[in-house]
Amino acid sequence: MTDYFDQAYDATMDHEGKGKRTNHKLDPGKESYSGISRVHHPGWGGWKLIDKWLKPGEPLNPNEVNLLEPMVRAFYRRQFWNPIAGDQLAKLSPAIALKLFDTGVNAGLERASQWLQEALNLLNRNKKIYPDLLPDGDIGGITLGTLKMALVSRPPTKEVTEQRILKILTVKYGGRWVWLMEQFPEREEFRGIFDRV
Question: In terms of domains, do 122 and 58 share one?
Answer without folding.
Answer: no
